[in-house]
Structures are given as C-alpha cells and as structure tokens.
Amino acid sequence: xxxxxxxxxxxxxxxxxxxxxxxxxxxxxxxxxxxxxxxxxxxxxxxxxxxxxxxxxxxxxxxxxxxxxxxxxxxxxxxxxxxxxxxxxxxxxxxxxxxxxxxxxxxxxxxxxxxxxxxxxxxxxxxxxxxxxxxxxxxxxxxxxxxxxxxxxxxxxxxxxxxxxxxxxxxxxxxxxxxxxxxxxxxxxxxxxxxxxxxxxxxxxxxxxxxxxxxxxxxxxxxxxxxxxxxxxxxxxxxxxxxxxxxxxxxxxxxxxxxxxxxxxxxxxxxxxxxxxxxxxxxxxxxxxxxxxxxxxxxxxxxxxxxxxxxxxxxxxxxxxxxxxxxxxxxxxxxxxxxxxxxxxxxxxxxxxxxxxxxxxxxxxxxxxxxxxxxxxxxxxxxxxxxxxxxxxxxxxxxx
Length: 400
Ligand SMILES: Cc1ncc(COP(=O)(O)O)c(C=O)c1O
What we know:
With 400 residues, the chain is an alpha/beta fold. Helix content is 36%, strand content 15%.
C-alpha cells in the first residue's frame, strides 16, 4: 500500500547558506532566540477553571471528570470514556481487563516504554514487531507473522500522533480472534478514514501528561465501545467498589481529580484549533524538509489524519558527513532545539531486552536517524524562518 507525505500548502523559500560558518563552529547563529520546542503555558481560562475547583473544595473525581469524559468521548468517537491517573495506568487497566497472565501480546518495538511495560506488569509476554520505514508506525505484515497459538491481543501505538493502519490491524485481529488496544497517548483527536480513533478496537488509551497535545499535568483517559468493558474499567479504577465500602473485585485507586479535569476541560475548548495549528506547522515543515536532500518528513498512514504530537524527520547518514546527533547539535546552536524519540528501540531497553527475539532492522535504523523539530500550536512566521534557514545551513555545511 502506498503512503504519502501531506502535500505542502505553500512553497517555502529556503535560502542556502553553503558558505556560512556554523554557529557550532563559532559562526553567527540563524537566531539568537531559540525556537521554543513546545508550548505548555496555561491560559487565564485554564487557571480560572482550576481555581474554581480549588474554591469549591471538591478536589476528588467529580463533575469536572465526568464533563471531560463526556466531551472527549464525543469528540473522539468513543461511547464510553473514563478519566484516570495517567496514560500508563490507562494501559494497565486495559490489559488487566483484556489480557491474561501468560498470554502473548503483539507490541511495537518503536514506542514509549509504557505500551510494553504494562504488558509485562500484567504477567503477559510482549512480542515485538518492527515498524514501517516511511510512516514509522507498526508494520501490520510483521505483526501478523508473529502470531502464535498463545497470542491473544495486539497493542499498538498511534505514534507521534499518526494513526496506525487501523484497517490492517482490525482485519488481522478479526481473522485471528485477537483483542486490540490502541495506545493513543500522543494522538488526541486524530482520525482514521474520517472517523474518530475511539471507534476502533477494544480499548483506546490516552495520556494527559504535561507535554501532551491535551495536558492536565498528570492524567489519562481510557475508552471503549463495550458497556461491559467500560464497567470493568470503572471497577478496576476504583477498588472494585459497587456501593459504599462494597467491593466486587480487587482494583486500584487510579482516579483523576477535578482540579486536573477542570484544566483538561478548559484546554479541550482550544484543542481543535490547536490541532489545526499543528497540522499547518507540519505542512510547512514538509516543504522545508523536502527541499533538503538527505532529510525526509514523516509519511502519513493512508486514510489517517495525524495530529502531530511530534514532527519526526529522518536523516540519511549517507548524504551527510556528520551523525544525526552532530546534525542536531548544530541545529541547536543555530537556534533550533530538537529531541530524539527514541534513541533506542524497546527491544534494547535493559528492562525489556529479555523479550527481544532478534534485532528488528527498521527500528534499528530509525533510532540512528530520527529527530523531532519544535512542534506546537504557538509556532509563528519567525519560527518557521529560523527552522527553514537552520536546516538548509546545517545540511549545506555537512553535505557529503
Ligand atoms: C506512547 C505513550 N504511551 C504511554 C505513555 C504514558 O503516559 P503517562 O506518562 O501519562 O503515564 C506515553 C507518555 O509519554 C506515551 O508517549
């Protein structure tokens, strides 16, 4: 299946600085003011919303949590949405309800550790799958190859805010009777074939960590379209309590509180507009990156509408005389901070390496090549100028 990088909206003129001395070697930087890598500031409305809860004294999970669940559920296409303490426990709740100890769960080798660590915490065995080189999302063909009689579930991440090939995953799951959990910690409000990602799979989990597209500091969400599962998630979230001090099953205290939820509700008002700004920024970056031989922007899964939690570039080491890390150090000196998501695949995390059966070629290549450009809703014309000029200047200076 072909994959496409979103078409640029407007041509970006990027001056070539073939002769300019890099700031990292003592030259003048493109900008003395670094481009902010992210934008996490609270608005006055966010602060007022949290203050109103503080003044009310109702600090526990209450009406604001219920409001966040209702509104975010509607916006993401899910029938049942539950707030919880963070994205990690959202995964833990999903796995506890859907996976048994000893099961094999197909997982991406290219993700944040929580997606897989909670499989291990459940007493199940993670089976790592490779990524697609263009979208960097899990490779459905590799995933299907790894199914054994012990496989009971697939848990995959909509990485960087881009949905995986949901049609392929759902088809494999239906064929082999597997449960599906989607980790959407980075993908709030992304859609697939025009439908909210909450419509697909057995459960979808989200993080509301301070730097996420929707952020309450710490926090999480968990959705499903199955009322029975929603009840189980609710019980597990709060000590299996069905009535005051009546506990139907053993559970946890993984509740969110209304202070965090009030911030979430307030920020949800702006999330659609902020998501549009991220998409616009990605479109600008696509044309800048395409103009630099040896750099490649993130391809989009066909049918997916990403929300660009991160904008991840791949560098071709054969086209430059430097490593990815040297390229990033030079960008930073020019005023463009970057980040690497991720410096090593999960197959080589000390905590998980014992589950790795073999090196996976695509993720081994990605971890040496990727870097993320500043991405958030507050990027403006001057920021785009700095990023475009810095990319061109650094690429020209390190041209092989
Ligand atoms: C893909 C992914 N899954 C899960 C998590 C865990 O979320 P939290 O930090 O809210 O526990 C994160 C957070 O970074 C994430 O990026």
